[in-house]
Amino acid sequence: MDNKEISEEKRLEIIREMIVTWENEGTDSIEDTLESALKIKDNELVEFVEKAMSFLSELESVKDEIDDIMWAYMEMLDE
Description:
single chain; mainly alpha; 3 helices
């Protein structure tokens, strides 16, 4: 990440874009939110987004395990 300070105008532009994306996509745009938070150097938002991404990753893993079990049940019923 570039450590140069960004102008207040650029910071506000990034925040506006981040809000528009969030309004349209909600937390589905979490990677975009992280990228914007890093650009504006909002450490609190970066921390929360990284935590959310970790939870989402864990949730996907759990959902995969559930899917595996459900597929096994389907195969059992098909026999």
